[in-house]
Model the fold of this input.
Amino acid sequence: MLYFSLPLILRAEGRKPANMKDNQSYYDDFAGWYENERHHGYHALLDQLQIEVAMPLCEGKDVLELGCGTGLILKEIAPKARSAKGIDISPGMLEQAKGRGLDVQVASATELPFEDESFDAVYSFKVLAHVEDIEKAMSEVARVLRPGGRAALEFYNRRSLRYLIKRLKRPHQVSQATTDDMVYTRYDTLADVAGYLPDSLSVDETRGIRVFTPFAQVHLVPGVKHAFAHMERAARDNALTRGFGGFLVVILSKS
Done:
């Protein structure tokens, strides 16, 4: 049953519900359950749509993923890159990424442990909406990118069907003791994102992921899931629809 979710409205407006956890605690708690639903259906489709956006920026390049989690995307990017590194705030998540043989370390998106101009490409999915000091994170992206480097950065889109549904739906359990409304989350417009950027970063283009999907469960229905997958792939790149993706991917370049 749907109901009006006050915590989600507070987060969209940049305020915090009382039961919030810090990001590291939240994702360490989530780590044990994170991949339970990630290898099929909706979540597998999201990963594939995101990989297809990032890959052209990363092939043959020195690459950094911000918030790599358990490494589900990084493991696909790394074989095609010249070098590929990942950072995440959660040691629990990184245990699984390390088990995949990936080059990862514990760090924050607002304090990257790399020299200036270390990477040709930076990408991030499902992460930056949970970073409170987003301007600092954007400054760090600009710092570690080489001139001419590019970034594919995903934000949660306030102008989307996903945002409307998230405002109404019941919080989702991510562990025995934690629900998905217990972490800081921000919903942005493209204008908001542009305002977070330092002068050296400029927007080249956008992509929209999850434009039409009302609920993740539709991707479990035979026949229906294939139709939605086709629709989502087309809508991601279409100029008329991509601005309404629940996940707004902004592709940037550094001057």
Observations:
- Residues 41-58 form the longest helix (18 residues).
- The mean pLDDT is 89.
- The beta strands are 62-66, 83-88, 103-106, 119-124, 145-156, 201-209, 247-254.
